[in-house]
Each structure stands twice: as structure tokens, then as C-alpha cells.
Design goal:
The protein has ten helices and no strands. With about 240 residues, the protein is mainly alpha-helical.
Length: about 240
């Protein structure tokens, strides 16, 4: 009991003292996750809007596939990316394995289907409501998609934050492609797993506390965005 208490005390000391190793891990985590969510949003929002507006043969199959990809096992994604980026893989010549870039790639593959599927669901409801009005104005499909993206920005902010929350909590895929190398590819989730296995609970607890704080902040932002959207909807 005493050791656990001491670990908590030491964890808070690491946080309040802005420990250099702790800050390095947190900053790298935010960098990797931020880049992954940015790329995933560029792809996922566009793909979701396209699927919400356009009707084409095979669309149902695409929707089923997209929904299935939302549940991709992280370790499988990590394995696939590992094989592609390894020395014997097609992109091995780039030397990206065990780098932050490899971690961004794995994170992006995991998050993009989630953002695309949720975007499609949100915008398709809006499209059914505005379709006749937009068609009467002679708006093209592309402009319809961009209009829906803008009008649904509050709902989509929630989608993006949900994707970021999923990204921050990921450990399996980034562990495989990043290697959890100290000062190179060690992020919060992988560091927690390593430090716990080593018995160094104070750093693991400090990182865990920060992860919980990030989760609280994300959920608070989701709530605020939803409340703002509701106020504008009834204004």
C-alpha cells in the first residue's frame, strides 16, 4: 500500500515539476496524434461527404466495408503497416519503420474509417432534409457536399474529437510499427505499458493521469460543441 501511495506522490511530482522525460513523451504523443487526426480528417471528411451525396453502383458495398473497417483490430493494422514498411516490404527502401512517421501512418489507417463513417451518417441525414432545396437552386453534387460539410461543422467537430480520443488511446498498432524506442518513438500509451511492466509505476501513473485529463477535456469539448449546435438549431 505504501509503495502505491509513494508512486502516486511521485507521479504528481513528475507532473508538477514538468519532468523532461514526461514532457518529451507527451509532446511526441500530441505530435503523432495531431498529425494522424489531421490526415484522417482530410481523407475521412471528404470521403464521408462524397458517400452522403453521391449515388453510384456499389455504394452499399462501400458503406458496409467502411462500417466494417471501423472495427479494425489495431494489432492487425500494425502488422500490415509493419510488413509494408519493413526492409523486405514494398516501401522498405524509405526507412520509415520505427519512426514517428510509421506511427502516424498506422494511426491514420485506424482513424480514417471512423471519421468517414460517422461523417457520412451525419451528413446523409442533412442531405435528405436539404436535397430538394439544393436541387431547386441548381447546386452541383460537389457544391452540395461542401455545403453540407460547412452546415454540419458542429456535428463534425464532435466526430473529429471522437476520432482524436480514439487516436490518443491507441497502443497496439503504434507499438508494433514504432518499437517504443526511448527519445524516438515512445508515446504515452506505449510508455505506460513499458513502465508498468518494468515496475516503474510513478511515470506510468503520471502519463495515465495526463491521458485521463485529455479524455476529460475531449469529452468536455464534445459536450460544449453539442450544446452550441443545439442553441443554433433552435435559434
Amino acid at each position: 500500500m505504501a509503495s502505491i501511495y509513494e508512486a502516486f506522490i511521485k507521479a504528481f511530482e513528475l507532473i508538477t515539476g514538468l519532468n523532461a522525460d514526461l514532457l518529451e513523451i507527451v509532446l511526441l504523443s500530441l505530435q503523432v496524434n495531431g498529425m494522424a487526426i489531421l490526415i484522417a480528417c482530410l481523407i475521412g471528411l471528404s470521403l464521408g461527404a462524397f458517400l452522403a451525396v453521391f449515388r453510384f453502383p456499389g455504394r452499399t458495398f462501400c458503406l458496409i466495408l467502411l462500417n466494417a473497417l471501423m472495427g479494425l483490430p489495431p494489432v492487425v493494422v500494425g502488422l500490415i503497416v509493419y510488413m509494408i514498411l519493413s526492409n523486405s516490404g514494398p516501401l522498405g527502401v524509405l526507412g520509415l519503420l520505427y519512426t514517428p512517421t510509421a506511427m502516424v501512418i498506422a494511426q491514420t489507417i485506424l482513424i480514417t474509417p471512423i471519421i468517414a463513417a460517422l461523417t457520412r451518417q451525419a451528413l446523409e441525414v442533412m442531405y435528405k432534409e436539404y436535397e430538394e432545396q439544393l436541387k431547386s437552386l441548381g447546386v452541383s453534387k460537389v457544391h452540395m457536399a461542401s455545403t453540407l460539410l460547412w452546415d454540419g461543422r458542429y456535428q463534425l467537430t464532435t466526430v473529429v474529437l471522437a476520432g482524436f480520443g480514439r487516436c490518443v488511446a491507441e497502443v497496439g498498432a503504434v507499438m508494433i510499427v514504432g518499437g517504443n524506442i526511448n527519445h524516438v518513438t515512445r508515446i504515452m500509451t506505449t510508455a505506460i505499458a513499458l513502465e508498468t511492466s518494468k515496475g516503474y509505476l510513478s511515470l506510468a501513473l503520471a502519463l495515465g493521469i495526463i491521458l485521463i485529463l485529455i479524455s476529460v477535456i475531449i469529452n468536455t469539448l464534445v459536450y460544449v460543441v453539442n450544446q452550441t449546435a443545439e442553441r443554433y438549431a433552435y435559434a
